[in-house]
Structures are given as C-alpha cells and as structure tokens.
Amino acid sequence: MRPSVLDPLFAPATALSGVGPKLAKALNKLLGDETHAARVIDLMFHLPTGAIDRRPSESIAEAPIGEVATFSAQVTEHRPAPPTKAKAPYRVIVEDETGDVTLVFFHADVRHLLQTLPIGAYRIISGKLELWDGMRQMVHPDRILDPKLAATLPSVEPVYGLTEGIGGRVMARIAAGAAERCPELPEWQDPGFLTRHDFVPFRNAIHALHHPVDLKAATGETVARRRIAYDELLASQIALALVRRQQKAAGRATAGDGALRHAIETALPFTLTDGQRKAIADIHDDMEKPERMLRLLQGDVGSGKTVVALMAMAAAAEARRQSVLMAPTEILARQHAERLAPLADKAGLKLALLTGREKGAGRRQVLEGLANGEIDIVVGTHALFQEGVAFHDLALAVVDEQHRFGVHQRLLLGAKGEAVDILVMTATPIPRTLALTWFGDMDVSILSEKPAGRKPITTRAISLERYDEVVGAVGRALDAGAQVYWVCPLVQESDTLDVAAAQERFEALQAIFGDKVGLLHGQRPGRDKDAAMATFSGGQTRVLVSTTVIEVGVDVPNASVMVIEHAERFGLAQLHQLRGRIGRGSAASTCLLLYKGPLGQVAEARLTIMRESEDGFRIAEEDLRLRGEGEVLGTRQSGSPDWRIARPEIDGDLLAAACDDARLLIERDPQLETPRGQAIRTLLYLFERDVAIRLLRAG
Questions:
Q1: Secondary structure class of 228 (helix, strand, coil)
Q2: For residue range 452-507, what is the model confidence (pLDDT) as tens digits?
Q3: What are phi and psi of 413, to 5 degrees?
Q4: In whole angstroms, what is the distance from residue 576 CA to residue 570 CA?
C-alpha cells in the first residue's frame, strides 16, 4: 500500500485551486499519459526550465535595453491610432525624471487600457525593453501593476514548459500550489550524508526549486536540485538492487564438458578475439554457478556478439538443456538462424526458427521439438514467449539488439523455464554512467576490439538541396559495382511531416535506375520482405530503399554506400547502427547524411559527431548527453520520463554514492523494515519505482 502521507500528491490535478475541467484537459496533454491523467505529483516534479529576472531598476535610464526590464513610472499620455491607419498600434507614454518609454499595444482594448493606465497614475511596468528609432519602447508589457501590489511581483519569475491552453502565469501558480501540497516526509537519507552535502529536507528542496531566488537557482546546479536528483538516483539504485537480489537468489548450475564449444570454434572461419574469449569465459563461469546469470554483452557494430552467444548456447546444450535467441525483428531472426545453422550442424546441435509467421505443420513440429527437448536452440522474435510455447528444459535466454529492453521485461524472461540464465546483447555501446543507471542489476562484458579487416567509413553531411548530386554519386557507385542502402524515415508520404517516404523515394529512384532498385519496410508482407532482402543480398537489386527496419543485424558485405535521408530526424544511436550496415566488405565505404536545414542545435551536434567519429562508445556518450536515457524502471512506455530530476545532473559522484548506499541498505535491511527502510519505501512510491514496489509486496 502506498503510504497515506503521499495521498495528497497522487490526487488528480483538479484537486488544486483554480484547475477546472478545461485547464485539466490541457494539463493531461502536457503531463499525463495513457495510464492516468495529470496529478499533483506530476506538477510538483514539473520544474522550471528557466527564469525571468524582474528585479526593478532604479530608473528608466538604468533599465537594460534588449532585456526584460522592470521599473516604476508615471503615465503621461495616451496616443490612439490615427483613424486613417486602422492597423496602427495604440501607444501609452510613461516616464520618470530620467526618461520615458512608449508602451505599444496592437489590437488594443482601449477601455481596458484607460482603466489600467490612467493618466497621472504611477505603475510598475515589466517587459522586454527595446529601442525603436532611437526611442525606448515596450511592446505588450508582461506586467502592469499598481505600486500597492508590488509585493505580488516575484523578483525572479520561474518559467515552465507549457502547452496550448496554459499560460506562463497560470502554470507558475498551479505548480507552486502543487509544491505547497508536498508534506513533511520521513527522512530516508543518512544524517551524516545530509550534513556533509548541506542537504535540506525534501519538502524544503521542492519549495526552493519552484521559488528560485536568482537565475542560477532556476537553471543551474543548486543544493536543492542536487538533493532531489540524489533521491531519484537512490530510488533507482535500490530498485535495481532489489531486482538483482530477486534474480540472483535462485538459479541452476549449467555445466558442460566443452566438446560442443570446441567443435564450433574449430568450424569458425576466423580466430576469436581476446575480448570474445574473455566474454565466453565470464558467461561460462556464470552459468556454472548455482545463481541465475544476468549479464549484458555489449560491443560495437560487428564485434562478434552472436558468436559469443552461440558458444553460451552450446554450453547449455552440453548440459542437455535448451537455449533461446530472441531478436527484435523477423528479418534479423531469420538472418541469425541462417548464419548459425551451419555452425550448429557441425557441432551436432538442432536449431529451429520460430516467428509469428510460422504456421501449420511446421510450427507444430517446432513446438513439439521444444516441448520434448529435441531442439537445442530456437531463434525467433517475441513470439517465443507467447502462450503455447513450452520448453522441455530452458537454461538460457539470449536477447539480441534490445538496447531498450528494461528491467521490467527482464523480470518476465524467466517465465518459460526454471531460473533461466539471461544474456542481453546490444550493439549500441553504453557509457558507464548509463550502464550503471540502466543495467545496474547486471554484470557487464565488453567487446571493444574492431572486427578484423573492417575499413574506415567516410561520413559526410549534405543538404537535401543537393539531392540531384547525391543521385548522380549513387549512379557512379553502381557503375563501379557497389550496392547502396537508401534509408527514409517514413513508409508513405505524410500530410503532417515534410520528410521523405520510402515508397515515394523508391518510385523516384526506380524511374532513374530501373529494376536495380528494391523496397523494404515493415508494413510489407513477410514474404515480400524476405524476397526484397534476398534479392539485395544476392546482388539482383543494387539499391535498397528502406526504413529503419535494416537498422540492426542486416549484413550485406558488398553494400558500401549508405544514404540516410532526413538524418536530422534520427538519434545518434540509430544513425550509428544504420551506418554499421556498410563497411563490412573489402571496398571503401561512404555514408551520406542528407539533412534539411536550418538545423537545430541538437541535430547539428548529432551530425557533427557522426562525421568526426566511428567510435560507438564515444557516440553513445554524446547520445546520452544530448538525449537522456528514457524510461527503464517504470511501467509506462510514454509520458513522464524515468528521470524527472536527475537528468542532466547524473554524475559520477552522485551515482557512485547512490550505488554504494543502495547496496549497503539492501544487505543490512533486505525487506526495508527498519525505520530508515520504511522511509525508503516512501521514496520508492514517491518516484514510482514500480518494479521495486512489486518485489517488496511479493516479499
């Protein structure tokens, strides 16, 4: 049960004064998601993104030009628009002993202005002060106040993220109201830790964040923000510690004699790298222990993760147990099955494929083989974990290319067997900080060596205005014997997005290059997708127009040119994955990033790092900085991000402290039953760490 002290925060936003149905609808759009409408806690954690300095100047002469200025002045004149110029603005002159300012109002309500700014009255004026023809003017002032109400104007006014239907002043008022509802909470931090870091109580920190005393308090790192960020990191690390304890608690030792692994290694057309050998040894050691394996295998594109997984699955087969390799797309699952089958055959292993497309007798045969133990390894998609798929004795689940595969899903993987070992693979290298926050419940193996023989890829960013030049370059590449990927962000033309569609680009390129052009996207029937991939792999088609369905795993060594249209719309990890489809053969490779200008700051930073580096780990660090982590420990797939406060304040010191604190807490108080443990339970509910809450309920 959620602690009752938190009930005021989990009330709907309509519980706040002034939030009626119309405003609630706008708040739901901004802060809610498919599981709930906006709540008081969502507003409390909706922190200012900036602030406006409204501290008053001593006089008009000292008020800053080009910035928000606040000053006191007397109204001296009203200048209505001339009758012959209907669209001309209404002007009001205000002045003090040092100068004057013209207040400009378009589409003015004259009666309202006469009441608000009567001639001879003194007013406090605040807004952006500018020069026009050498004269000071302020267009539509933000604030016009009677001096008696000066105390109601904050010196530093917080600025919040908004949506249609919510103004800045309204948001500031209701966000402050949400902060006021934060109760005094039991302290979950160690007293000594609080003293060392000068941390104030949680409620005080929330209040300070919504009532900044200066610009830094709203936009920079402060003690209050660091306190809340640490609380959030601690909640996440405790959740991961609980998951790790639950997963590691029960396991089965899977020990083999090495015969099948030796047969596979002998059949390989290459020599294993030192990194692969180390990862294989780590995985084998984990599998032999009477604890469940939870390991992340990460390596750059083409670093040989699949071979490592095959050796792990062979180790399970040596113990007469089964393994499953799950891929995110049917195309990748089929490619895995085709490439692993010859190696499995040479070792005497029976490998099968199971996706949602398999029907009839073939599917029944696979299901029977899994149930009676005849099949050693099955490769497939999420269909592997559907109801009706039963295993004789599942030992190992390998999840490929699931860099968004969160803690919640990892908890569900073992449902098809007894204490199933789990190996998660990702070709998106993960920075240490992200690995600790996202995969803190897992051990990590890294394949850092570049594959032998891979050549550097030349990457260029080119404006879409030079589209014809790019098509010409593609034609020359085809004449030289190359194959080309052309990636578009959409399948079909959109009425709302001005970006290229794969179908439209396919037709345009086909008109130029004829039957050399093929089309692949996720909406095509499965057999058509297989045919498109097969003809491109076989060289019958030379240009493959595709969506990001080729992002992971697809391997055509002769493909040496990658064109990514509207590259500014893709994330860094996705661009790196797409680029990794080329450079796999002996030919020099080129990646062209076509963008539509003008570029925003983040998009420009992405394209710059792509031009500068092929190092997946450096790219991942930059991606983390630009984009953040996404949701990992919650259950919602959209809406509020996993990190409400801690981004971008996640740093090594905070994270290391939270990791250590969480580990010691769970070791000393496994069920969080001490007074501090009970306070920690409140913390987990406060930050909605659903996985941890469920594990504690299960006991």
A1: helix
A2: 666 789 999 999 999 999 999 999 999 999 999 999 987 655 544 445 688 899 99
A3: -65, -30
A4: 10
Q: CA separation (Å) from 693 to 173, 242, 537? A: 32, 10, 48
User: What residues contact 628, with CB distance under 8 A and at least 6 apart?
Assistant: 641, 643, 647, 648
Range list of H helices, 514-556? 526-537
Q: In 241-269, which positions are buried (b, 16+ CB within 10 angstroms) versus exposed (e)? A: bbbbebbeeebbebebeeebbebbbeeee
Tokens encoding 651: 């740093």
3-class DSSP assignment, residue 646: coil
Phi/psi at 36 (nearest 5 deg)? Answer: -160, 155
Secondary structure of residue 21 in the 3-state scheme: helix
Residue 271, C-beta contacts closer than 8 angstroms, at least 6 positions apart: none
User: What is the spatial distance between Cα 692 and Cα 239, in angstroms, rounded to a whole number?
Assistant: 5
Round to whole Å and give the CA distance between 379 and 323.
Answer: 9
Helix (H, G, I), strand (E, B) or coil at 531: helix
Q: How many CA atoms lie within 13 A of 498 on its CB side?
A: 4
Q: Is 502 exposed, middle or buried (0-12, 13-18, 19+ CB in 10 A)?
A: buried
What average pLDDT values come out for the chain (699 residues) when binned by 10 residues?
Answer: 93 94 93 84 93 95 96 96 86 96 94 96 97 95 95 92 91 96 95 92 95 84 90 88 75 90 91 92 93 84 86 96 88 87 94 85 91 95 79 92 54 69 78 57 78 78 94 95 91 52 90 93 80 89 89 76 92 85 84 92 90 82 64 39 59 77 89 93 91 79
Identify any residues that bridge with 145 across adjacent strands, giving them in sequence order: 124
Q: In angstroms, rounded to a whole number, what is the distance separating the alpha carbons of residues 281 and 279?
A: 5
Cα 14 to Cα 46, 370, 604, distances in angstroms: 16, 53, 41
Q: Is 493 helix (H, G, I), strand (E, B) or coil?
A: coil
Q: Which strands, in side-by-side order, build the sheet including 483-487?
A: 457-463, 589-595, 559-565, 483-487, 543-546, 517-520
Pairing of the two strands 457-463 and 99-105: unpaired
Sign of the alpha-carbon dihedral angle for 167, 168, 174, 175: positive
> What does the alpha-carbon distance between residue 58 and residue 48 come to, in Å, rounded to a whole number?
28
Judge contact between 366 and 351, C-beta under 8 A: no
d(CA 305, CA 320): 23
Strands 589-595 and 457-463: parallel
Residue 479, class by beta-carbon neighbours within 10 Å (0-12 exposed, 13-18 middle, 19+ buried)? exposed
Q: Which residues contact 298 (CB under 8 A, 6 or more apart)?
A: 305, 425, 426, 427, 428, 429, 430, 435, 444, 445, 446, 447
Residue 534, helix vs strand vs coil: helix
695 to each of 3, 18, 240, 414, how far by Cα in Å? 16, 38, 11, 15
Question: Tokens 């860094």 belong to which residue?
Answer: 572
d(Cα 361, Cα 353) in Å, to the nearest integer?
13
Cα separation, 153 vs 54, whole angstroms: 8
**Residue 455 tokens, joined:** 């050549």
- Could you give the angle at the alpha carbon of 74 between the alpha carbons of 70 and 79, nearest 5°? 100
Number of separate helices (H) and strands (E) present in the chain: 24, 22
